[in-house]
Amino acid sequence: MNDTVKGITPEGDREHIISLYGHVKGVEREIEIIKTNHLKHLDEKISHVHLDDRQNLLGSSYHGGCRWFNCNRNFIGDDMKLSTNFSLGEMTKSQTATRKGIRNEPSTAHIENLIHLAETVLQPVRDHFGKPVAISSGYRSPELCEAIGSSTKSQHARGEAADFEIPGVDNKELATWISKNTEFDQLILEFYDEGDPNSGWVHCSAVTGEPRKQVLRASKVEGRTKYENIIL
Q1: Which class for 232: exposed (0-12), middle (13-18), buried (19 or more C-beta within 10 A)?
Q2: What is the CATH number of domain 95-229?
Q3: By CB count within 10 A, which of 97, 153, 159, 230 is most buried?
Q4: Mean per-residue pLDDT over the chain, rounded
Q5: Are 184 and 120 in contact (CB under 8 A)?
Q6: Residue 122 and residue 166: Cα distance in Å, rounded?
């Protein structure tokens, strides 16, 4: 700034412009503080909204294909839209992270993966069943993975996977629909008991490359988790 102004203005004007520049930067900082505090207030309000209303609210204002997090991650925050009905916040929330003070914050690459997961699997599920999808686990930072005993090589750690269910929908029915109608990578019907539609949950991942289309069932056998290939 100084060298550029020095070459084209008298000394007095240069100092005046530098002074104005400092004033402008100060105003910009104040605006950022106000904007951040305003978003925190909105976060507090929207966190109390029912899941159904929250996802419908997000869907009413989605602009497809936006990647605003590249411009200003702090401004977008947890309410950044991943797809019509899914936000970054619900894909990064974790009671364990909150309790232990872990910052479960994905990188830009991880967010791109979460967007792909939402657009490839989660949004089609939401559109088909017409009900809110309850995400129990999405992105997990390496520190969070260690805290819950999960592998840091898990697809959750890359933003490629989520665990979820739909209240009122049989988890096997949910997994079956996903297996036949989406370009998933790995699909696991976890700890599901036949005859109990509310048992277990669905784990599903999506990748930007060629999907494996692997379908598994997870169950407890003598205290250990067993995975077996199944056809839905």
Answers
A1: middle
A2: 3.30.1380.10
A3: 159
A4: 81
A5: yes
A6: 11
Average pLDDT over residues 8-23: 53
- Domains of the chain: which residue ranges? 1-48, 95-229
User: Would residue 37 be called left, alpha or beta, if left means φ above 0 and alpha means ψ between -120 and 50 degrees?
Assistant: alpha
Q: Which helix (H) or strand (E) holds 224?
A: strand 224-229
Predicted TM-score of the model (pTM): 0.69
Walk across the sheet containing 214-221 and list its strands: 134-137, 161-165, 201-205, 186-190, 214-221, 224-229
Segment holding 84, helix H or strand E: none
| 10 Cβ contact list (under 8 Å, min separation 6) | none
Q: Report percent pLDDT > 70 for the chain.
A: 67
Quickly list DSSP for 158-211.
GT-EEEEE-TTS-HHHHHHHHHHHS--SEEEEES-BTTBTTSSEEEEE--SS--
CA dist 51 and 117 (Å) reads 19
Higher pLDDT, 2 or 205: 205
Spatial contact of 102 and 143, defined as CB atoms under 8 Å apart: yes
Q: Which two tokens stand for residue 168?
A: 């009122």
The alpha-carbon radius of gyration of the chain (Å, integer) is 23
In angstroms, the CA 61 to CA 109 distance is 24
Distances (CA, A) of 193 to 128, 172, 189, 199, 204: 24, 9, 10, 6, 18
- Overall size of the chain counted in residues: 232
